[in-house]
UniProtKB/TrEMBL annotation:
The protein's role, per its UniProt record: May play the central regulatory role in sporulation. It may be an element of the effector pathway responsible for the activation of sporulation genes in response to nutritional stress. Spo0A may act in concert with spo0H (a sigma factor) to control the expression of some genes that are critical to the sporulation process.
InterPro entries assigned to the protein according to its UniProt record, in alphabetical order: CheY-like_superfamily (IPR011006), OmpR/PhoB-type_DNA-bd (IPR001867), Sig_transdc_resp-reg_receiver (IPR001789), WalR-like (IPR039420), WH-like_DNA-bd_sf (IPR036388)
Keyword set, alphabetical order: Cytoplasm, DNA-binding, Phosphoprotein, Transcription, Transcription regulation, Two-component regulatory system
Family matches, as Pfam families: Response_reg, Trans_reg_C
Protein name: Stage 0 sporulation protein A homolog
GO cellular component annotations of the record: cytosol; protein-DNA complex
DNA-binding region positions on the chain: 131-230
Residue ranges of every copy of the Response regulatory domain listed in the record: 5-118
GO MF term set: cis-regulatory region sequence-specific DNA binding; identical protein binding; phosphorelay response regulator activity
Taxonomic path: Bacteria, Bacillati, Bacillota, Clostridia, Eubacteriales
Amino acid sequence: MNKPLILVVEDDSAVRNLITTTLETHNYRYQAAPNGEAAIMEAVSHNPDVILLDLGLPDMDGIDIIKKIRSWSKTPIIVISARSEDTDKIDALDAGADDYLTKPFSVEELLARLRVTFRRLNDVGSESAPDSVFTNGELKIDYAAGCVFLEEKELHLTPIEYKLLCLLSKNVGKVLTHTFITKEIWGSAWDNDVASLRVFMATLRKKIETDPSNPKYIQTHIGVGYRMLKV
């Protein structure tokens, strides 16, 4: 079986070399692109398994690249950017990114995000049949198919959003702490992951809640964590 192919889109040569050296050390195949035009050509030509994308490229904004790639591909896109505001993260996720890593980042954090992405791709269809469908009010999760429906309409969730929703659904009524959730989702409990968790929870709520400011399904326990309510 071929090793996963990862497309690294980064104009800073030092950061690009750090990422590609890390990938090579851990037996990932990779292609590298220094700008948006090259990134799109590489994505079309090589059909990578995952794209690591910097947003601040010299020829076009990374958000536009996400939108272009999403017009024809569902390849997971992990943004790696110095833009650290929640609004920047939400814009990237809304455009179709699957995960967001803020610079500066550690090698271990990057590898953890990749493992989560590949685990999500490999886990689709791995749930056992007897408990493969979860229903809570108008929300339905088909674990076996890896699909989520709200009022019978299928939702598009990123891998992280889907994993979060599944984790909460399998613990209905229980308050899950930030530490527990981040370890389950990213395999770690870095402070940055708690910040990322808040962003992903906001984008998830936008998709499953009629009124995200007054949530029906996911309750926030300030300073502690989150709980899925039984509707």
